[in-house]
């Protein structure tokens, strides 16, 4: 059973991925999480900025866990794309990537200073995911420089496909990107590292 504090962090992450950070107020998080009204500033003395930072970190950790559990590069690709497909279907195409949602909102001048720590956390999460994906590719025999490039490409393509799928209310962009990344990766992997079922 999660503590009220943990529930608030998870609720904030879920709300951000559907609405973005700007539209996610502490009152919404309290309502969504069922946490006691007076608890927000007790748990998050840094206010909304602290809560948003922790929600970004939570989301980052969740996907990092999926990356870590994948035993092969192709399995990793399948896992991430399946995760996004399930998320879109379960939320009627409302839920995108909370990290991307935070990053997209970075440019609004009025909020820039207050959001700077949240943006820094989002950047760190993207860097961490890219590094972890590249390490997975390297451990399957892809040359380090190539693995870094492929990891960046995979991240960019995944985030872009997720956005297109949401806008079009259609999983086809995810399916196409999945197929293209899969074939690209398959061509890069040495024999014996491709034992997958596609």
UniProtKB/TrEMBL annotation:
Keywords: DNA-binding, Transcription, Transcription regulation. GO terms for molecular function: DNA binding. It comes from the Bacteria. Residues 25-44 bind DNA. It holds the Pfam family TetR_C_13_2. Residues 2-62 form the HTH tetR-type domain. InterPro entries: Homeodomain-like_sf (IPR009057), HTH_TetR (IPR001647), Tet_transcr_reg_TetR-rel_C_sf (IPR036271), YxaF_TetR_C (IPR054156). This is TetR family transcriptional regulator.
């Amino acid at each position: 059973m999660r503590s009220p504090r943990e529930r608030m962090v998870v609720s904030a992450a879920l709300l951000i991925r559907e609405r973005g950070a700007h539209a996610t107020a502490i009152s919404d998080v309290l309502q969504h999480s069922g946490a006691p009204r007076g608890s927000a500033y007790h748990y998050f003395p840094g206010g909304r900025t602290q809560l948003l930072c922790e929600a970004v970190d939570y989301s980052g950790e969740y996907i990092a866990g999926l990356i870590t559990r994948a035993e092969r590069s192709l399995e990793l690709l399948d896992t991430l794309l399946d995760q996004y497909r399930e998320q879109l279907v379960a939320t009627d195409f409302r839920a995108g990537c909370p990290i991307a949602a935070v990053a997209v909102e970075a440019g609004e001048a009025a909020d820039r200073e207050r959001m700077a720590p949240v943006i820094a956390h989002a950047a760190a999460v993207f860097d961490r995911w890219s590094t972890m994906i590249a390490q997975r590719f390297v451990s399957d025999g892809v040359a380090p420089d190539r693995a870094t490039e492929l990891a960046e490409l995979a991240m960019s393509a995944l985030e872009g496909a997720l956005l297109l799928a949401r806008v079009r209310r259609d999983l086809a962009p995810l399916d196409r990107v999945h197929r293209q990344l899969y074939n690209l990766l398959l061509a890069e992997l040495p024999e014996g590292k491709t034992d997958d079922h596609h």
